[in-house]
Amino acid sequence: CVGAQQKINFQSPFLLLAMHLYLQALTSILFLSHVSIACYIAGTDSGECSTSTAVLAWRQDNMPYCQFSVLYPACVPKEDLELPASREFPMGRWNSTILMKDKYVERMTETLFIERIAIERNRTLRKAGVNEYGDKGRVRRRFYKKPDCRNAFRNYMCWINFPRCDVARDLSMPTCRSACENFFISCGYERGLWRCGKSKYFNGYEPEKPIISALGNVSYLREYFPGQPFRENKYSPKGNSELQICTPAIDGAASRSHFPGSVLFVALTCVFCLLGLLL
């Protein structure tokens, strides 16, 4: 049963496309410690800390898509910076501008929405009584008429592409575990499909059980989830404010929404926050 859950997660068109587009760019950051050694964006030392993100008018001009998500000092692309050659770009490349990066996040995120909603509204699958994998059942509705899920994913994409930074030390900060888990909660994913755990478990919460073929070949299905590594949220001694040690680390960020949200989503978020304080 666990293996089946992992297979669905790995082969989901929505998650697979996200991984395909982001994992190559994120690979080099996966092995960094929980505190980066510079202002990294997608694993490359190509950013600089900016406090301009605290100004709404600046965000409206420079990152209109992420303007309601990035409410902290952020690591943004250094402009006019020529990046060295890499495996993905053997001839080297020029760094993105902040606005180009924002438009990239918008294009990627909205494309995922369109493709997933098309699957969820597919009448052929519905009439055949099968899901997107051809198995008997129905397609789970994640994005279609689910503004909380879309908003959680939109926020998450903005956060991992414009991470919080320590201005004094010019250091980017890893993603808060709560930001990742908020996405899975908001989109109704079963607990066994969450991928916000430790890097050594490929972001699972426990070691993966290998699949052994009839010939004795061992294989695994997990892959790193975009935005990892994740850091556990920490709070002040009185528990009334969140410490700024990860991205986004904004009080109430998990439930903040610039689109209408449902009461159920807020309730789930509050329960999760309370559990985080008690554990």
TrEMBL record:
Keywords: Membrane, Transmembrane, Transmembrane helix. InterPro entries: Frizzled_dom_sf, Serpin_CS. PROSITE patterns: SERPIN (PS00284). The chain crosses the membrane at residues 21-43, 259-278. Gene3D superfamilies: Frizzled cysteine-rich domain. It comes from the Eukaryota. SUPFAM superfamilies: Frizzled cysteine-rich domain (SSF63501). This is FZ domain-containing protein. It comes from Spumella elongata. The lineage of its organism: Eukaryota, Sar, Stramenopiles, Ochrophyta, Chrysophyceae.
